[in-house]
């Protein structure tokens, strides 16, 4: 069964450093998303991406965040200058038609 | 603001019993709802979905009920098993956009 994959599973970085979180969505899907989940809290939407552009973003997704689909398979989330409060699980999701979204296993980002 | 929320933070059930997990949503424009299961250290796993033009949908051992009049969504799990122990989230979607998640409820299955 096809699934969304994410790398790395755990990323530790120092405050102020740049990180890139990587995702490989399900191959025939057209809609891509990033969500995050701070420990013990609910999953929060960050950004959606369709047709090579951002279709929607939340207020969390400020100018320190960016997304890219550099090739036909990868979908990345970059945080330019990490802050302590960026520590969270980051989930990538993909969807064929924009409704049923399938999530990856997540990347745990720890900012020290 | 509008939000999706869950009534109870934890639910403990006996193995073999049926479980019912409830969710209230407040955005009447939502047209699609999903239940996700999240096990410790893993991503949300799709369980079942329902569109706003339906009031009931059944899967394998799971049923989702939608009551648009009172903006209520529920997940019923038949013959609950230890492997069903997890955090369950309801999520809503409007017109093909982002998912808005509820707070999550922990289901604990007693052997």
Give the arrangement of secondary structure elements.
The complex is a heterodimer of chains A (112) and B (111).
Chain A: E1 5-7, E2 10-13, E3 19-24, E4 31-37, E5 44-50, E6 53-57, E7 65-68, E8 75-79, E9 88-95, E10 102-103, E11 107-111
Parallel strand pairs in A: 2-11
Antiparallel strand pairs in A: 1-3, 3-8, 4-5, 4-9, 5-6, 7-8, 9-10, 9-11
Chain B: E1 4-6, E2 10-14, E3 19-25, E4 32-38, E5 45-51, E6 56-58, E7 62-67, E8 72-77, E9 86-93, E10 99-101, E11 105-110
Could you give a short description of this structure?
The complex is a heterodimer of chains A (112) and B (111). Chain A is mainly β. Chain A has no helices and eleven strands.
Can you characterise this structure?
The complex is a heterodimer of chains A (112) and B (111). With 112 residues, chain A is mainly β. Chain A has a single domain (5-107), classed as Immunoglobulin-like, CATH 2.60.40. Helix content of chain A is 0%, strand content 50%. Chain A has strands at residues 5-7, 10-13, 19-24, 31-37, 44-50, 53-57, 65-68, 75-79, 88-95, 102-103, 107-111. In chain A, the strands form 2 sheets. In chain A, strands 2, 4, 5, 6, 9, 10 and 11 form a 7-stranded mixed β-sheet that branches. A 4-stranded antiparallel β-sheet of chain A has the order 1-3-8-7, with no helix packed on it. In chain A, a hairpin with a 6-residue loop joins strand 9 and strand 10. Chain A starts with a strand and ends with a strand. Chain B is mainly β and 111 residues long. Chain B has a single domain, classed as Sandwich (Immunoglobulin-like), CATH 2.60.40.10. Chain B is built from no helices and 11 strands. In chain B, strands 2, 4, 5, 9, 10 and 11 form a 6-stranded mixed β-sheet that branches. In chain B, strands 1-3-8-7-6 form a 5-stranded antiparallel β-sheet, with no helix packed on it. In chain B, a hairpin with a 5-residue loop joins strand 9 and strand 10. The model of chain B has no long low-confidence stretch (mean pLDDT 90). The chains are: A mainly beta (112), B mainly beta (111). Chains A and B meet through strand 4, strand 5 and strand 10 of A and strand 4, strand 5, strand 9 and strand 10 of B.
């Amino acid at each position: 069964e096809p699934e969304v994959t994410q790398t790395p599973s755990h990323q530790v970085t120092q405050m102020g450093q740049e990180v890139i979180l990587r995702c490989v969505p399900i191959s025939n899907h057209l809609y891509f998303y990033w969500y995050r989940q701070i420990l013990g809290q609910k999953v929060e939407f960050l950004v959606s991406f369709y047709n090579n552009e951002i279709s929607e973003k939340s207020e969390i997704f400020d100018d320190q965040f960016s997304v890219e689909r550099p090739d036909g398979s990868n979908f990345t989330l970059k945080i330019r200058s990490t802050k302590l409060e960026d520590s969270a699980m980051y989930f990538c999701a993909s969807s064929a038609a924009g409704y049923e979204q399938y999530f990856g296993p997540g990347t745990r980002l720890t900012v020290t | 603001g509008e939000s999706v929320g869950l009534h109870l933070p934890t639910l403990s059930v006996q193995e073999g019993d049926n479980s019912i997990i409830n969710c209230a949503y407040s955005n009447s424009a939502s047209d699609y709802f999903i239940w996700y299961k999240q096990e410790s250290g893993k991503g949300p796993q799709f369980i079942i979905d329902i569109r706003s033009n339906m009031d009931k949908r059944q899967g394998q051992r799971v049923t989702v009920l939608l009551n648009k009049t009172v903006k209520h969504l529920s997940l019923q799990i038949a013959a609950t098993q230890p492997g069903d122990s997890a955090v369950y989230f309801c999520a809503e979607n409007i017109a093909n956009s982002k998912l808005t998640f509820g707070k999550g409820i922990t289901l604990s299955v007693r052997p």
